[in-house]
C-alpha cells in the first residue's frame, strides 16, 4: 500500500502536474493540502477519470485538504480537527481506506512571530496532539500525513540558512512536533533515512530549488500497529523540478502486507 502526501499549492492551477504524477506513480492513497479552491471547484471529474475517488474540504484562496484513493472512494470520518467549534479553516480531513485511518492535515504557518498567527499555530498544534492521543488510545491503524509547517531539527533544513526567526523552526514548534511523535508515532521518512537531505519544500524565491536549499515540512507519521509494516519511504524530488510545479514535492511511504495482530481494531466513522 503506497501512501503519499502532497501540498499541491493550488489544485486547479497544478492539476496537469498532479495528474501526470498520479499516472506515473499510481499511489494507492494521496493526502493533498493547500487546495486553494472552494468546495464546488474541486476537480473531481478529472480525478475520477484518472482512477481516483476523493473526499475533500475546500476553501477559497487558501487552505483546503483532500484524500484520494485509487479505485475507491475514501470513507469520510471527520472534516474538522476537534477542539474548537469556531474553527472555519479547512485544514484537516480524515477517512478510512482499506482498513487504515488516514488524516490529511495542513498546520498553520505561524509567521510572523511573535503574534496572533503564531499563537494560532500553537493552539492548532495542541488540538492535533490531543486528537492524535485519542487515535492512539483507540488502537486503530493510523497515518497522520500532511504539511506540518515544522522543520523538526536542524538536519531537516539546508546548511547555513538564515531562518532562525521563522515560525517553522521555532523552539515551540519543534517541541510540539516532538511531543506528538513521542506519543508513539513513527516518522516514516526518518525511520527509513536516518541521515541525509530529505527536503520536501523549496521556496520559489532566491533560487532555492536550483541551489537545493530546501526544508522538510511534509511528514507521514505511523501508529505502532502500522509502523512494523513500513518497507519504504522517500520524497519524489523530481516533481518539484517540473514546469509549473508546486513548491513542495510529494513524500510517500509503502506498507507491506498486513499481518493482523491480536487486539488491533478497524477504524470506524466519527460523528
UniProtKB/TrEMBL annotation:
Site (Interaction with DNA substrate): 248
InterPro entries tied to this protein: AP_endonuc_1, AP_endonuclease_F1_BS, Endo/exonu/phosph_ase_sf, Endo/exonuclease/phosphatase, ExoIII-like
Source organism superkingdom: Bacteria
Residues with site note (Important for catalytic activity): 218
Cofactor(s) the record lists: Mg(2+); Mn(2+)
Protein name per UniProt: Exodeoxyribonuclease III
A Pfam family recorded for this sequence: Exo_endo_phos
Keyword Nucleotide-binding: no
Residue intervals of the Endonuclease/exonuclease/phosphatase domain: 4-248
Residues annotated for Mg(2+) binding in this entry: 7, 34, 147, 149, 247-248
Organism listed in the record: Lichenibacterium ramalinae
Entries under CDD domains matching the protein: ExoIII-like_AP-endo
Entry annotation: catalytic residues: 106, 147, 248
Amino acid at each position: 500500500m503506497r501512501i503519499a502526501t502532497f501540498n499541491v499549492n493550488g489544485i486547479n492551477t497544478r492539476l496537469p502536474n498532479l495528474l501526470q504524477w498520479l499516472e506515473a506513480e499510481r499511489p494507492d492513497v494521496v493526502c493533498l493540502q493547500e487546495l486553494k479552491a472552494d468546495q464546488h471547484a474541486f476537480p473531481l471529474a478529472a480525478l475520477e477519470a484518472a482512477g481516483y475517488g476523493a473526499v475533500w474540504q475546500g476553501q477559497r484562496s487558501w487552505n483546503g485538504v483532500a484524500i484520494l484513493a485509487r479505485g475507491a472512494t475514501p470513507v469520510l470520518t471527520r472534516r474538522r480537527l476537534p477542539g474548537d467549534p469556531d474553527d472555519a479553516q479547512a485544514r484537516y480531513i480524515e477517512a478510512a481506506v482499506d482498513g487504515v485511518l488516514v488524516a490529511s492535515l495542513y498546520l498553520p504557518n505561524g509567521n510572523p512571530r511573535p503574534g496572533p498567527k503564531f499563537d494560532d499555530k500553537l493552539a492548532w498544534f495542541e488540538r492535533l496532539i490531543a486528537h492524535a492521543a485519542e487515535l492512539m488510545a483507540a488502537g486503530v491503524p493510523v497515518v497522520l500525513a500532511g504539511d506540518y509547517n515544522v522543520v523538526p531539527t536542524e538536519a531537516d533544513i539546508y546548511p547555513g540558512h538564515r531562518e532562525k526567526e521563522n515560525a517553522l523552526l521555532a523552539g515551540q514548534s519543534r517541541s510540539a512536533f516532538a511531543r506528538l511523535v513521542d506519543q508513539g508515532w513513527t516518522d516514516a521518512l526518518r525511520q527509513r533515512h536516518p541521515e541525509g537531505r530529505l527536503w520536501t519544500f523549496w521556496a520559489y524565491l532566491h533560487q532555492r530549488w536550483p541551489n537545493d536549499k530546501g526544508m522538510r515540512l511534509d511528514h507521514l507519521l505511523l501508529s505502532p500497529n502500522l509502523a512494523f509494516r513500513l518497507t519504504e519511504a522517500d520524497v519524489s524530488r523530481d516533481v518539484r523540478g517540473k514546469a509549473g510545479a508546486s513548491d513542495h514535492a510529494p513524500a510517500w511511504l509503502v506498507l507491506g502486507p498486513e499481518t493482523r495482530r491480536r487486539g488491533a481494531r478497524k477504524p470506524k466513522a466519527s460523528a
